[in-house]
Amino acid sequence: MVCVPYAGGGASAFWDWAELLGESVELWCAVLPGRERRFAEPAVTEAARVSAPLAEAIRAEIAAPVVLFGHSMGGLIAFDVARRLGGQVEHLVVSAAKAPHLPFGGEPHLLDDDGLLGWMTTLGGVPADLLAHRDVLGLLLPTLRADLTVCAGFHGTRDVLDVPITAFCGTDDPLATAADVAAWRHHTVAGFDLVVRPGGHFYLKDDPAAVTSVVRSVTAKEGVQ
Q: Of residues 12, 24, 72, 95, which has the active-site annotation?
């Protein structure tokens, strides 16, 4: 299973999932430009510049079948990767992400730094201990802004996959409502499930085991190792 992080986030968000998923699932986490060991690389603003090399890496390094999981921006990137990989992908799991044909909403990538930080804080995406370190936040905001530009660029995408989709949403998510997430059903001809969890945009941080149990059942059903 390959996990793709949310805007401004990194692969470390999923490191704890390996134990939760168990030995039957081989976990891979995408490290995108502009964060973690690729911090020196500029973050990109076009989805294809993320999804194309990621799809190539998966094709080269990971044997089929593959399950893709993406949270928020990661869900949109995972969708684009699934389009490129075709039959190698057995299941797409998206989380807290509006269906790609819907407008992202609010154009947060156009806000100034204070506005962007406030927007992300409202969603719960900035750890409290990080808020006191404005110098560090200043280094992270360009990557967040670039990622949100990627999200905005998906508006109007209506491609349909021959891949089953499971979509998660939080009951109190102001960015991706249950109706927004349920609209992913229009992007597959191979089956769709909606899973609603209590919480906001980052609901999965509250109870990751509840999320991974569903993901584990998906991988078992698809025969992913």
A: 72
